[in-house]
Write a sequence for this structure.
């Protein structure tokens, strides 16, 4: 099996890592360890995504015009949208947990 074969939700391995695993891992890690730093989850997962993509594709991702444009205009905003959505869901869950704990 090659690394570009569909793995999860029809995404290849790098896309699965970038758009599923990294945002979910960042949000869950900050949700359970330090909930008041949950706002940093999109920033953390975007930095990790950039590192993974530079390792997978090579430094040409950030230096060559076509790759850089696709990365900065297409991938980063999409990743941020997924990360912000997961962070908003985590904030909603934290609010519901806090509300439930106040009642008991």
């Amino acid at each position: 099996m090659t690394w570009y074969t569909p793995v999860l939700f029809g995404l290849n391995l790098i896309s699965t890592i970038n758009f599923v695993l990294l945002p979910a891992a960042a949000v869950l890690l900050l949700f359970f360890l330090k909930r008041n730093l949950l706002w940093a989850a999109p920033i953390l997962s975007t930095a990790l995504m950039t590192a993974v993509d530079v390792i997978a594709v090579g430094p040409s991702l950030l230096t060559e015009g076509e790759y850089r444009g696709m990365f900065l205009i297409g991938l980063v905003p999409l990743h941020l949208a997924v990360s912000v959505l997961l962070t908003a869901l985590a904030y909603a869950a934290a609010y519901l947990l806090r509300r439930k704990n106040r009642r008991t």
Q: What stands out?
A: The mean pLDDT is 85. The CA atoms of residues 40 and 96 lie 20 Å apart.
